[in-house]
Design brief:
With 112 residues, the protein is α+β, with helices and mostly antiparallel strands. The N and C termini lie far apart (33 Å). It is built from 2 helices and 5 strands; from the N terminus they run αβββββα.
């Protein structure tokens, strides 16, 4: 994120901060140079900066409710939201996805 201080980096930093602030027990780590938000050792979200967009991703995104239909991807588990400079983001819906991802991983870790 720091290599892209303006534009894409600012978008990535903004949404990773939302992930980090979900709870006191959220910790961050780098995986393949990508910032990942975890509950203990269990990852729930990440941001990754590409050439023309930022992905805000969810490790169990396929299981998340997505009434605004922001999530993209066809994998068995993971989904992401593409964020671009100059393009409006449904901030409430994306925040809702982050909340849902955190709640989901918390339930998964507490219930095995």
């Amino acid at each position: 994120m720091k290599e892209h201080a303006a534009g894409l980096g600012a978008i990535a930093h903004q949404w990773f901060e939302v992930m980090r602030k979900r709870g006191d027990e959220v910790r961050e780590l780098l995986h393949d140079d990508c910032p990942v938000a975890c509950l203990g050792d269990a990852p729930f979200g990440y941001v990754n900066v590409f050439t023309s967009h930022v992905n805000g991703g969810f490790f169990h995104g396929a299981a998340l409710p997505d009434p605004a239909r922001l999530l993209q991807g066809t994998g068995k588990f993971m989904r992401h939201v593409k964020l671009r400079p100059g393009t409006a983001t449904n901030a409430a819906a994306l925040s809702g996805l982050i909340d849902a991802a955190y709640t989901d991983i918390k339930a998964r870790t507490e219930n095995g």
